[in-house]
Design a protein that fits this description.
Number of helices of chain A: 0
Number of strands of chain B: 11
Order of helices and strands of chain A: EEEEEEEEEEE
Low-confidence stretches of chain B: none
Helix content of chain B: under 10%
Order of helices and strands of chain B: EEEEEEEEEEE
Largest sheet of chain B: 7 strands, mixed
Oligomer: heterodimer
Strand content of chain A: over 45%
Number of strands of chain A: 11
Largest sheet of chain A: 6 strands, mixed
Distance between the termini of chain A: 40 Å
Distance between the termini of chain B: 36 Å
Shape of chain B: globular
Strand content of chain B: over 45%
Mean pLDDT of chain A: 93
Radius of gyration of chain B: 13 Å
Number of helices of chain B: 0
Helix content of chain A: under 10%
Structural class of chain B: mainly beta
Structural class of chain A: mainly beta
């Protein structure tokens, strides 16, 4: 099946620092999404991207849909302790019919924020 | 508050046992999914269902089956549990059609097979 390569695998940062992570694929996706998983919980959607080149913000989070449609980036500015968790990228390659919701996930980036 | 509820948070079973993982959503969503989460591998889709009694295989369906008799409930079945099925299992639901990419997840079931 399709694979997404997410990097870095883990990050240890100080509170207040900015964070960048990315996701690449060998195939094209029509939708890119970023989810966050808090410890002991299921993932929660942060940002959804639908057009190549699109740049979308959600508070301190900014994500971009790569122009080639094979990559996406997530930036977190001025990190705080509650940013701790696992961040997953996800792609949806087809649109229409029963393909909606059938996502491919990256391996995840584990973020640790030191106060 | 919308919810996806998984019946057990932790489960310990023995090799060869039949295991049922239950998931219920209260959002009237058409789509429901079962993923497993393993460190370094991310989330991998086992099965999904886009309607009652309908199911499709995901990327790793071997050793699993599913049942969706009612719209709000989606069950994952391990016919004969094996140690390599020790994992975190996540259930999710979403709308049918556009918007279906926005998944709502349960809190997960950590299954240990001894």
């Amino acid at each position: 099946g399709q694979q997404l390569n997410q990097s870095p695998q883990s990050m240890f940062i100080q509170e207040g620092e900015d964070v960048s992570m990315n996701c690449t694929s060998s195939s094209i996706f029509n939708t890119w999404l970023w989810y966050k998983q808090d410890p002991g919980e299921g993932p929660v959607l942060l940002i959804a991207l639908y057009k190549a080149g699109e740049l979308t913000s959600n508070g301190r989070l900014t994500a971009q849909f790569g122009i080639t449609r094979k990559d996406s980036f997530l930036n977190i500015s001025a990190s705080i302790p509650s940013d701790v968790g696992i961040y997953f990228c996800a792609g949806q390659s087809d649109a229409g019919g029963t393909s909606y919701g059938k996502l491919t996930f990256g391996q995840g980036t584990i973020l640790t924020v030191h106060p | 508050d919308v919810k996806v509820t998984q019946s057990s948070r932790y489960l310990v079973k023995r090799t060869g046992e039949k295991v049922f993982l239950e998931c219920v959503q209260d959002m009237d969503h058409e789509n429901m999914f079962w993923y497993r989460q393993d460190p370094g591998l991310g989330l991998r889709l086992i099965y999904f269902s886009y309607d009652v009694k309908m199911k499709e295989k995901g990327d790793i369906p071997e050793g699993y089956s599913v049942s969706r008799e009612k719209k709000e409930r989606f069950s994952l079945i391990l016919e004969s549990a094996s140690t390599n099925q020790t994992s975190m299992y996540l259930c999710a639901s979403s709308l049918g059609g556009q918007g279906g990419e926005k998944l709502f997840f349960g809190s997960g079931t950590q299954l240990s097979v001894l």
